[in-house]
């Protein structure tokens, strides 16, 4: 994958927040790679988003070279932590393995060490016990594999980068893992921007939207605890003074000079109005990447902080951060950190709570409270990471029964035996 920044990169920052302005990727096509995923956001737009860990580090975290640190406790098997029963699918036989080998010679993996990596999510919160990993290269091979699995009533767990946050990408039991890692084709993307935020952040967003118009492509925020965590766990340096919030503004435009002028005007405006009181400018790619890392590596920093309870919510932006404040009081010292960050343009809050270890008591304090709070604001319990395994039973907080019924009917139509990623996405009883 090659990325190119084609603009000068002003970065500014505020006393109550940091505003940094960087250019967005100029390329319109990327080779899809493990660190990127395609997301659907409001409207029909599609964009690629790089996940919260750096290129190269990703595969180590996720799958291929995953191994538990010596002496670290093994991840609990999913059915031991969650109440889920295996459905009556077949189990993989020697004949099945031989059939797969005919379809994708040399790409049927049964080596326990390699399988261990793909049976566990990268957050190390769920673990399946699949005995086979298939690595097709073409859609025709995928078709043949699925034809066989359908005939044999074998459950299948598709797996891309294994970067999911909700346990959707790893098997719950012994599903066949169908990896798309070798299917790296070119896909295109468009930019998406969205709605405003809260207090000064919100006002800054409005200003940016008004002044940058169509070249504004992302507006990200993170709170001060996030900044502290990337410093503490990843040794990333905060380039500006401490402040309660930090904002990252991404732009994309066809003319570097034009964009640069607009960005300078925005900076002047937000600095003069007092919305932004401190800032920095990035002028080379190395620094741009350094600034991006502060935002993109929060997930990684959190996972080094302890067990992470993750919520990926859509909320009216005016109330977006209230939940974080509310939870800090509610959880008190039971939580190590309660942080909020996300894509303000999409009204997407990543609420993450860290603790020394998983605890049912803390989970009980978080759920269903977080979902009920979200429902009260008419928000969504899953904004960009899907429902996966962990959130399937909370769909009812965002969708009426009739919508869930319809989803179930569509699924049954496309997957009559229910072999495709069972135990995920739809509630146990819709
Ligand atoms: C991000 O925006 C990702 O950094 C990860 O969507 C969110 O870890 C999370 O909760
Ligand atoms: Zn996100």
What would CATH call the architecture of one domain?
Answer: 2-Layer Sandwich
Instruction: Give the distance, in angstroms, between the N- and C-terminal Cα atoms.
Output: 41 Å
Which geometry do the CA atoms define?
A: globular
- How many strand elements? 14
CATH class of one domain: Alpha Beta
Tally of DSSP helical segments: 14
Structural class: alpha+beta
What string, H for helix and E for strand, traces the elements in order? EEEEHHHEHEHEEEHEHEHHHEHEEHHH
**What portion of the residues fall into strands of 2 or more residues?**
15-25%
Question: Which ranges are low-confidence, i.e. pLDDT below 50, for 5 or more consecutive residues?
Answer: 1-72, 186-193
Largest sheet: 6 strands, mixed
Residue-averaged pLDDT, rounded?
81
What molecules are bound to this protein?
(2R)-2-hydroxypentanedioic acid, zinc ion
Your description of this structure?
The chain is an alpha+beta fold and 430 residues long. The chain has a domain at 2-43 and 195-220 and 229-299: Alpha-Beta Plaits (2-Layer Sandwich). 33% of the residues lie in helices and 17% in strands. It has 14 helices and 14 strands. The chain has a six-stranded mixed β-sheet with strand order 1-11-10-13-14-12, with helices on both faces. A hairpin with a 4-residue loop joins β13 (337-343) and β14 (348-355). The chain is globular and about 70 Å long. The two termini are 41 Å apart. The model is unreliable at 1-72 and 186-193 (pLDDT under 50). It binds (2R)-2-hydroxypentanedioic acid and zinc ion. The site of (2R)-2-hydroxypentanedioic acid (2HG) has 9 residues, from α10, β12 and β14.
């Amino acid at each position: 994958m090659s990325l190119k920044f084609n603009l000068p990169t002003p970065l500014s920052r505020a006393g109550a927040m940091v505003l940094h302005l960087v250019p967005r990727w100029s390329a319109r096509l990327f080779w899809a790679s493990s660190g990127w995923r395609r997301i659907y956001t409001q409207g029909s737009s599609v964009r690629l988003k790089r996940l919260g860990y750096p290129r190269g580090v990703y595969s180590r975290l996720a799958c291929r070279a995953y191994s538990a640190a010596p002496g670290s406790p093994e991840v609990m098997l999913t059915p031991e932590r969650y109440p889920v029963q295996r459905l009556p699918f077949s189990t993989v036989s020697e004949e099945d393995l031989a059939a797969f080998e005919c379809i994708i010679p040399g790409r049927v993996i049964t080596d326990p060490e390699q399988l261990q990596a793909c049976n566990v999510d990268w957050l190390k919160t769920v673990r399946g016990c699949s005995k086979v990993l298939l690595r097709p290269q073409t859609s025709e091979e995928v078709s043949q594999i699925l034809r066989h699995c359908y005939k044999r009533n074998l459950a299948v767990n598709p797996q891309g980068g294994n970067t999911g946050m909700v346990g959707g990408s790893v098997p719950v039991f012994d599903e066949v893992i169908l990896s798309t890692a070798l299917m790296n084709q070119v896909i295109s993307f468009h930019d998406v921007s969205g709605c405003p935020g809260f207090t000064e952040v919100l006002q800054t967003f409005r200003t940016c939207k008004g002044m940058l118009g169509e070249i504004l492509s992302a507006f990200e925020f993170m709170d001060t605890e996030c900044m502290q965590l990337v410093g503490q766990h990843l040794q990333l340096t905060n380039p500006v003074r401490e402040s309660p919030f930090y904002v990252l503004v991404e732009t994309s435009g066809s003319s570097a000079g034009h964009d640069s002028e607009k960005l300078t005007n925005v900076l002047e405006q937000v600095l003069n109005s007092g919305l932004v009181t401190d800032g920095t400018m990035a002028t080379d790619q190395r620094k741009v990447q350094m600034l991006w890392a502060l935002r993109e590596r929060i997930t990684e920093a959190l996972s080094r902080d302890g067990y992470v309870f993750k919520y990926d919510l859509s909320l009216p932006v005016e109330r977006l951060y209230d939940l974080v404040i509310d939870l800090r009081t509610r959880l008190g010292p039971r939580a190590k950190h309660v942080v909020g960050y996300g894509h303000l343009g999409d009204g997407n809050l990543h609420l993450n709570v860290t603790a020394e270890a998983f605890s049912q008591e803390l989970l009980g304090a978080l759920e269903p409270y977080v979902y009920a709070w979200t429902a009260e604001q008419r928000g969504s319990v899953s904004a960009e990471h899907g429902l996966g395994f962990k959130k399937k039973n909370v769909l009812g907080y965002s969708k009426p029964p009739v919508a869930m019924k319809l989803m179930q009917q569509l699924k049954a139509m496309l997957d009559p035996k229910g072999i495709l990623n069972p135990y995920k996405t739809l509630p146990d009883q819709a």
